Amino acid sequence: MNPAPMVALVGNPNAGKSALFNALTGARQKVGNYPGVTVERKAGRMSLPDGRPIELIDLPGTYSLEPASPDEQVTRDVLFGKQEGERLPQAILIVVDATNLDNHLRFALQLIRLGLPVVVALNMIDMAERDGLKIDAAKLSAELGVPVIPTVAVRKRGIDALKAAMADLVGDGAVRRIAAGPGVVHEDIVVLQRRARAIALAATTEEKGARAWSHRIDAIALHPIGGPLLMAAILFVMFQAVFAWAQTPMDAITALFDMIGKAAQTALPAGFLRNLLTEGVIKGTGAVIVFLPQILILFFFILFLEATGYMVRAAFMMDRVMARVGLSGRAFIPLLSSFACAVPGIMATRTIDDPKDRLTTILIAPLTTCSARLPVYTLIIGACIPARKVLPGIGLQGLVLFGLYVLGTLGALAAAAVLRKTVTKGPSQGFMMEMPKYQMPSVRDVGIGLWSRCIIFLKRAGTIILLSNVILWVLASYPVAPAGQKQTEYSIAGRIADAIEVVVKPIGFNHNIALALPPAMAAREVAVSALATTYAIDAGDAADNDEEKTDEALGSKLHVDWPLPTALAFLMWFVFAPQCLSTIAVTRRETNGWKWPAFMVSYLFVLAYVAAGATFWIATWAGL
Amino acid sequence: MRLDQLPLNRPARVLAIAWADLADTAARRLRELGLDEGVTVEALHVAPFGKDPIACRVGRMTVALRRAQAHAISVEALAA
Question: Which helix (DSSP H) or strand (DSSP E) does residue A396 occupy?
């Protein structure tokens, strides 16, 4: 059987391409990667009105077919049938923004020249009307020589008509070029642009002088004083929400895992399997999954700010600040995403044109405080920093946490400044960006984005994190220590930790920390479950009391076991250390080799070691 | 007058663009964003820190660019 016909969805950035993709395919999407490059391949299934399936691929948004970034290269190669691992599409679905026809039609003209069957979605037609623009779709269709369907993707308007037009286009599913093939696309942008303007003018039947309301919002959002204040307020609410809103679901998840643990405890006979399940699997996984609410809340804000168009305003305001360290405002968006996770953050650097800007941003992204550090910070701060008020309404614990975020950010900026003067030296390419209209994102689009993040996190928890917990538990539990010896010291893991301890003792780390460091390389948050596991094992052989509530006890154990300088040094280590294999892997892919990830890992380890050591010795000297 | 000197909210026409003064990527991006001799531009906003970059209306788009880049664009203010 032949595979389903493939249609490529193409358009300028900010044309509403993703919303249209979601409206057409629903949640039936597969996100992958093109071989050899890290450009995301987003494909989904949709069915035509007559029931035939279509594979729709969402190509990266680009302004033209002249490739400048890896994203644009992929779009171009797919449309020319030259992309490895991708067949030539049967048809192209072009999305244009009705409020910005002049510009978007130029790219549409270029795409029509490719000679594949084309349908144009005249998107955001509602916004155009609000701006006082009346566009005659029939006239536009006549001018372009292809079908034009007015749509409002976020409200799912015009989708049925679009599907009908696609059904006509695909026909029997054979690939055919209706005009001259590739080779005629090398027309000057300026020439195409002038034609686009003429066509847009001809198709626009009425234009009232209504001022775009985005401009009015910008008068506030970009106000010289109000703008930065608003941005600070938004970021404050965002980080506040991560803690406040997440509390209830986190408590629920903890309770759930306690319940499962207890059930397993009573259901299973004592022995290896029960211990592995309760101490290794359930406790370890629960300690990580509990952070799902916080991660989702952070991603919600980032997806939401991105979809509304505010993120570009933030980049605009921050450009000057970023320029001081040799970057541009474009780097601000990947760096802000890195507060959720450095992996999508590093992938978001693809939108940075300048290769040196991009490399620098990748190298500093792991310094921003990603959400995986939160579990570690929360645990250590809760255990070792006294919960007293510094000022009314401001607690010492919260202040320390805020300080760690600030430290990571300053570290990232300082690193950028140094890198830009040394290893990634070169002239600045400036900052040039389209500022999209403000838009209320649909619940569905944000929901789909969140859902895919949720799946990725749970997959990680179910695979890498679970596996490293089980391995650690086994290594830490065997061989069984004879009476009078501590299990965490006698076991295989204990002996590995002995070797690590030699290196980390000078910076104040104890044996159990040395034990938790290697598994934390799989993912930072594993440090928490690793500590939980090691202390659970120790508790097990100290008391051999199954009913002991090790969960609540972890904090108080650390409180007893760790002197304050050690706790502070440990926090400092987590601010800088290059943990998490996923980040290293994505850096390798994005930079096409081991050179830059190796460099990144080395400079971050040196930073972490020095910072943790300095903290430990200063704190010890100060008598903390 | 250059675009970076144009007062806010004063529509102007682009007279000439010194393409040679711009880096290749910047020149290409500028063209893609619709900057061209003859189009109407209007400076709308300046960034809060250091009054750089600026946001300009170009056609129906709003485009952010640094003053250094805007300096390559010669404009003539239109009668209000």
Answer: helix A396-421
